[in-house]
Write a structure and sequence with these properties.
58% of the residues lie in helices and 8% in strands. The protein is built from 12 helices and 6 strands.
């Protein structure tokens, strides 16, 4: 129990059964009241106890079973002081989002060194929010310890992407089947947005349009746990898409597949929606892993011809 709670707790003393000792307890009451006043947290730093209130303000309040309580009527209430919250945007979240987007889009390439001072200078912030943002990115698996000291962008691992797509494929197929059972109609604007981004060769816009389509399927499923679980893996998928979509030949076919999935969901064909989504994710995984493996192991340059 805290000192504040203790000082507010009524002190009860049972009146003894032996006659003649009640006068001693009556004399003890002022000393107890003085002790309670002294140990109250608001007075803990004082070297001498506060003076006792006048006798007419010290009362003995009787209770049942011959119990009385000592009460100080001079207690004053001190209102709590709350610290005003800062209404400025969260710098850590803003720095995290900028670095996250740069890594996903490939602006910060795999194995690129990240210097806190340089990031803080470019973003016009102190080093503290940069440090906290980098810790979050490390937890996400997007940055790692660099040789010697410091941090660097984590490499793109084709095997990791394949594992991620196995989990994502199961979640996407479940979401498509549940959405079809509810005949959830997806917004046609999602498809138009994706095709527009593809024609414009805007890689960040293509990534966001793809994420928006799948998020709409998750929402149409009616199961909020699907989207929460899928969000754990999108960090790595965004990076792989950013690297592969730079020179991918499957941009238009991806949105053809999205359109067929949306039609199956709207028609309430759960089996077709599940099958189409599984096939879609399987093709995406194969294409991603092949492109990443080829980038990680480029063919050796051709030998120059030499004369006799």
């Amino acid at each position: 129990m805290s000192l504040e709670a203790l000082s507010r707790q009524p002190v009860a003393v049972r009146r003894p059964a032996v006659s003649g000792q009640s006068d001693a307890l009556d004399r003890l009451a002022p000393q107890l009241n003085r002790l309670l006043t002294f140990i109250r947290p608001g007075h803990a730093r004082q070297q001498t106890p506060q003076p006792l209130p006048p006798p007419d303000k010290q009362v003995l309040r009787p209770h049942q079973n011959c119990v009385f309580c000592i009460q100080n009527l001079n207690r004053t209430h001190v209102p709590a002081t709350l610290v005003k919250l800062d209404s400025a945007p969260d710098l850590v979240e803003r720095v995290y989002r900028v670095l996250h987007d740069a890594i996903s889009a490939g602006t910060l390439e795999p194995l690129a060194r990240i210097k806190q001072e340089e990031v803080a200078r470019q973003l016009a912030v102190s080093r503290q929010p940069v440090l906290q943002a980098l810790r979050r990115l490390k937890d996400d698996g997007l940055v790692q310890d660099a040789p010697g000291r410091g941090l660097q962008v984590a490499p793109l691992d084709a095997a990791l992407i394949a594992s991620v797509y196995e989990v994502r494929g199961a979640l996407d197929a479940l979401a498509a089947r549940l959405a079809a059972l509810q005949q959830g109609a997806l917004n046609p604007e999602l498809l138009a947005r994706g095709r527009k981004a593809t024609r414009g060769r805007n890689v960040p816009a293509m990534i966001e349009a793809d994420i928006a389509f799948h998020a709409a399927v998750y929402a149409a499923s009616g199961n909020p746990l699907i989207e929460r679980s899928a969000q754990l893996h999108w960090n790595h998928i965004r990076r792989a898409m950013g690297a592969v979509l730079q020179k991918s030949t499957l941009r238009e076919s991806v949105w053809d597949e999205h359109e067929m999935i949306a039609q199956a969901i709207a028609a309430g064909d759960a089996a077709a929606a599940e099958h189409l989504m599984l096939a879609h994710d399987r093709r995406a995984a194969e294409h991603m892993t092949q492109q990443l493996a080829a980038a990680a192991n480029p063919p050796p340059p051709p030998r120059r011809a030499t004369g006799d």
